[in-house]
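Title: Prediction job returns without error message
Component: structure pipeline
Severity: low
Priority: P3
Assignee: unassigned

Description:
Job completed but the reporter wants confirmation the result is attached to the right record. Sequence as submitted:
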Amino acid sequence: VVFMIDALDGVTDADITFSRWLHRRIPDPDTQIHVVANKTEGIITSPDTTTWDQISSDATRLGFGLPIPLSAEHGDGLVDLFHIISERFESSSESSSSSSSSKSTRQMKIAILGQPNVGKSTLVNAMMGENVVMTGPTPGLTRDAVKVDMEGTNIAIYDTAGIRKASKRDHTIPHETLAATRAIRTMEDAHITILLIDGQSDRKSTRLNSSHRCISY
């Protein structure tokens, strides 16, 4: 976790609140949390270290050790940050390669996408052979990606919320935009994506183009 603070503003109340949240949510001691003090151009290179000493002392109140100086705008400190992150990647790669021999297979992820009310949940139930997700004539019953594990296999099917084009969404309803974002993320993480369209619609070609375009949103 790279926890960035504004070196010019110092540690704010919001930073302290967020640090407490991190302490609660990430209790794993193996998880590294690095505080990065941004906007340090001219501070870290100054022969007078008083300012940086104050920033460092202030940042240690967050409970994650000394901060890493950085100037994202000018690129100062990026090399140090890169080395810290790359070291973590190398150690993670070694541990994952040693444990990979004990894992014979990986779970296959299948995501089902499409516009609202085209029958995504019905398809999932048909593939599972039982009613595992709720269906109905009302669009929008599925508001999040629902994972269903196929018994006896190493396959997981994700039933996603219907996606409408951004121009047709009701942006006053937060859950629709959030559901569409989660559906697209599920697609990006899946090994196979099934794009479902309404084959009985009188506007089949229009629906196909619209469904294809909606993925880009």
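Comment from assignee: result matches the submitted record. The beta strands are 2-6, 34-38, 68-69, 108-114, 146-149, 155-159, 192-196.
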